[in-house]
Amino acid sequence: MLEDLGDDLFARLLETGKADEAELYDAAIDALLALHAKTPPAMLPPGWPLLKYDDLALETAQNVFVEWMPKLRPSLAFSAKALAEWEAIWGPIRARGEAGATVFCHRDYHAENLIWLPKRKGAARVGMLDFQDAVLAHPAWDLSMLLHDARRDVSSAREAESLARYLKARPELDAETFLADYHALGALNVARILGIFARLVTRDDKPRYLAFMPRLWDYLDRCLADPSLNDLKLWFERYVPEMAR
Fold first, then answer.
1. How many degrees, rounded to 5, is the angle at CA 149 between CA 239 and CA 165?
2. What CATH number belongs to 10-244?
3. Is pLDDT at 1 greater than 70 in this prediction?
4. From CA 59, how far away is CA 30, in angstroms rounded?
5. Which residues are CB-neighbours of 212 under 8 A, at least 6 positions away?
6. pLDDT for the residue 48
7. Pair 162, 147: CB distance under 8 Å
8. How confident is the model at residue 25 (pLDDT cuts 50, 70, 90)?
């Protein structure tokens, strides 16, 4: 089934001041909550399996960064020692990501893919585009996509308010554990996107993606402020100096 959801992308409404940011982000969180409350289907129409964002998929995602950033920044050269440390840090994080892969994950859930439908009620006010790569994943993944938006600034205050709204609606979750997972998987997601953008610039000759990268580095720093990610923070400080960012 196809439906014309209109033209009111969250991103366009926000950049033109035609909508309230808090209202849109609250609605986006509520839509995620509705998705996460449903038992995910094993199969999607027309018979495609809902694959799990498992250890292998997460490993592939993390390694886009170390593969493509040196092509964008030739001063970066990751030694065998650096790569071994990289893998050792991410292994336990991937295990948490796979173990927590329990919800339907849009995988590209951000303001460019959400459409405002204010005449509808509840979660139906949020139209969703570009969900063809959906997977079974940890609920933190789409939260990271929304709150670590490469194409628009999401403030730390907005991030905190959105996370608080999500956790308030899910009292069964241990907030401290969930936020640790969110920061860890968020760091993996941001590193993945940095690698993808490096690939788009160097391989595909799309220099416009350079403009998004400083914002992503800021999001990564925000994730790495979590004390549980101190080893990852030190890895970036050691092997990816400021001048190479």
1. 115
2. 3.90.1200.10
3. no
4. 30
5. 150, 151, 197
6. 83
7. yes
8. very high
Q: Which amino acid, residue 115?
A: I
Q: What is the pLDDT of residue 44?
A: 81
pLDDT tens for residues 81-136?
Answer: 999 999 999 999 999 999 999 999 999 999 999 999 999 999 999 999 988 889 99
**Domain residues of the chain, as ranges?**
10-244
Determine which helix (DSSP H) or strand (DSSP E) holds 201, and give its type and residue range: helix 175-202
Name which of 144, 222, 150 is nearest 185 in CA terms. Answer: 144
Give the type of residue at 17: G
User: Tokens 């959400």 appear where?
Assistant: 114
171 class by beta-carbon count within 10 Å (0-12 exposed, 13-18 middle, 19+ buried): exposed
Instruction: Please give, one letter per residue, the 3-state secondary structure of 74-126.
Output: CCCCCCHHHHHHHHHHHHHHHHHHHHCCCEEECCCCCCCCEEECCCCCHHHHE
List pLDDT tens digits, range 207-245: 999 999 999 999 999 999 999 999 999 999 999 999 889
For residues 198 and 68, is the Cβ–Cβ distance under 8 A?
yes
